Amino acid sequence: MEFIIGVGSAIVAKLAEYTVVLARRLCHYTSDVDNLRAQVQRLNDARQNLQVRVDEASGKGEDIHDEVQNWLTSAPGISQGAEDFLNNNRDRANISCCSVQIPNLVSRKKLSREARKMVENLQREIQAAQRFDAVASRPALQTVIAMRRDYEDFGSRKTILEDIMKALKDPNVSRIGIYGIGGIGKTTLAKEVARQAVEAKLFTEVAMTTVSRTPDFSGMQREIAEKIRVNFEGRETIPARADLLQRKLKEEKSILIILDDIWEKLDLIEVGIHVENEGCKMLMTSRDRRVLGVMGTNQNVLVDNLRDNEAINLFKKIVGDIVEKSDFMRLAIDVVRECRCLPLAITTVAYALKSQDELSVWKDALMQLQNSAPTKIDKTLQNFYPSLRLSYEFLRSDEEKSLLLLCSLYGEDRNIRVEDLMMCSVGLDLFPDVHTLAHVRIRVESLIVRLKACCLLLDGDRGGDWVKMHDVIRDVALSIASEEGGMHSVVIKKKEDCRSLKMKKLKDSKVLSLLPHSDFYQLPERLECSKLELFLLLSDQGICIPIPNHLLDESKDRLKSLFFEQANLLSVPPSFHSLQNLQTLRLRGCVLEDVNFIGDLKHLQILDLSESTIKQLPRKVGQLNRLQLLNLEGCKDLKLIEPNVISSLIKLEELYISEYFDKWEVGEVNVSRRSNVNLAEIENLEKLTSLSLRVPDAKTFPKDFKFSEKLERYRISIGDSPYYSHPSGISRSLLLKLRERSQLTALGLESLMRRSEWLLLDGLIDVKNVVCDLDSEGFCDLKRLDLLSSDGVQYIVDCVDQQIHPHKAFPVLESLRLMRLRNLERICHGKLPQDSFKNLREVRVSRCDKLKNVFPLSIFKRLHSIQVNNCKMMEEIVGHVRSEDDGAVQFLELRSLDLGNLPKMVKFMSLSEAEAAGGSSSVESSDPFFGEKVI
């Protein structure tokens, strides 16, 4: 009996032990499976969040980092694998016994182990996603170089160019120099070298920056960084940026850095562009071969004057057939000789004479060239002065001359805002017959077109809203401005430069610009310039310049325009309250706190406080009843605009509100308890023609609010979409996150939408066919279209019924971006009218799950860049090519093709729908992706 009891006790004990083990394994299995399920959800959340960031970056035109795109491509497979494991192994975890499910301990132990391994893998992927601080970067700017086609292929330059290209391929040459006098064509040659280097794929990156006589280290670093995708955020000082830039350059395996216009030895380590990597090279240009020597160049080439026949051919090419007449030919030869066969001199004189068909005019021009004797001018400019002086004299109006001289006041090789020139023109009353800012802007833009046509101004490096001057032309124009116009420009680099401001010619200045250098000393305590009407303090060195208390005491009675950049005005000088004749005040990027003094400037017409540190716009500003322009863009700290200030500015024509301002007061205008500005104040500005504002919530708009149809220029953003930087050259844009089309009508946006150059629509649910539903005329002015998260959209253009849509669609559209359009079936449905999409160059498509192809061949052949990713049903990029089209299909314009995560993709392009239906377009697994016809 005791034996039986003993055995029974042992069995019970063993059963208890097994029960504990079973419970533990059941518990482990359950927790492991639950943990795996949770990690799958976390991974899916991380993927979704990262995809949103990627879509936002793509919408801004940025390049997605390869590691981010690779992660997004691989993550769905990892997530799906874990879900399949969870779904497919439920039966393995149990044993069926008499219709009862009993846990299978052996299987559950194995499954737990597999689940834990999967959890570790998922956690690694989640951590990898969390480490992506930046998902994209701005695209490199070398494409601008690669697209250049304006190089004159002179025979005398051919050998030079060939020598440089050979040196770039020589592993023993790391630094190459180009030298020659100013205006001889060194920069043009360097850009052609860059273009050919990109075309020949000698380097993965090409970055070019201008050094100039007074190097702007901060600007140089920024230009190099933009072209190799380096983000300087959080690094404000030159040494900090240099350290980051140097580290990034060390990672480059193949890069060409071009340093243009070096005047003296430059410490490359100080700037952060010292490269010694194998495969990385530097190309430098200078007027002095000795400078290239101290910069350590291995090989130098001289760019000399043009040959006589090249010079006369260049002149003839510009002037035209009139040169073929014998009398004019003899004069042309003499003119070219007086230009010393220098390309810059020949070009400017030729454009001055281009439309002159009177022999006497040519003879007079030659006499001026022969008799021009500049005084007090740098010897390096003496060869150019006569020709450039002649070009200046041949300008048709005093307005053109004044604008040219104004441009010379800006720093060497500096990009100049067209907006600045407009403001200066108002401040100096350059156009007394023009009474509105819109007309001033048109006049300035017209003058710029003429000056560019004469080769006296160049396109800026930052787009159509900027211009710049060749440094030789600037030097000559500055000499003319000093001698005749009472205009002077002084670089402040050391204490002695401040003393030069006491010279008599500067004391008599009507216009004065000070250009602080990065290591400048300080401003003088007082400017002894009692005749001063326009004063510019132009700094973009990243330093905030303190303003002495008595700086403008002598000038306060006559000063009409005051331009400060990056000045410290935390303590406002007392004289600022007394600037009663001031018409233009521009305090861009300045440290400001109390701006009540502005209310005392009763004659003010233009007030620009952009990118300043102001926190509020006080009530006193509402007293400026002559104000025509108010600019508050980029003011990150602006939280308060006093009620009724905006509505009191009854003559306001242009209003630019900070994109960071989000404190719009909800309610009616006359409610006395309001503490901030109300949108109805804008509605009451009857003269308003230009407007920029961002309203995060559409509910903020008062009842019955409508935007004025008088707006000629606008940048309006409504809704909580991410902020997008504004592209250059776009003057009318709408960025709208709205749900229903009726909101467009309610706010008066339909008319503005039809005239927009950039349109972003996010979240619309009741638009099926974009063109038919929103603008049956076909969006004739639109240059860029971004369509996001609009689930109702089925077609962008539906032309099946020509009676509904007979017009051409998007005739000037350049960029099309389609993202998260879940029900988009086709971009173009039916036969497109002629000239539709004829200017389209860039297409980006992402997460359009029903889209099977992008564009027909006729449109695709013109594209420069196409990016398609994360489209579940995408089968081919080019849709329906007819088989009877003989010969190869050439995509000669295509420069970038980026395809990713397209699981249904089988071929780059397919045959027509009819042939596809007949089975003639079947795709074999061995067929090449691009097919035999594609080149």
From TrEMBL:
SMART domains: AAA (SM00382). Residues 33-60 form a coiled coil. Keywords: ATP-binding, Coiled coil, Nucleotide-binding, Plant defense, Repeat. Gene3D superfamilies: Helical domain of apoptotic protease-activating factors (1.10.8.430), P-loop containing nucleotide triphosphate hydrolases (3.40.50.300), Ribonuclease Inhibitor (3.80.10.10). Residues 172-324 form the AAA+ ATPase domain. It holds the Pfam family NB-ARC. One of its GO terms (biological process) is defense response. GO terms for molecular function: ADP binding; ATP binding. It comes from the Eukaryota. Belongs to the disease resistance NB-LRR family. This is AAA+ ATPase domain-containing protein. It comes from Ficus carica (Common fig).
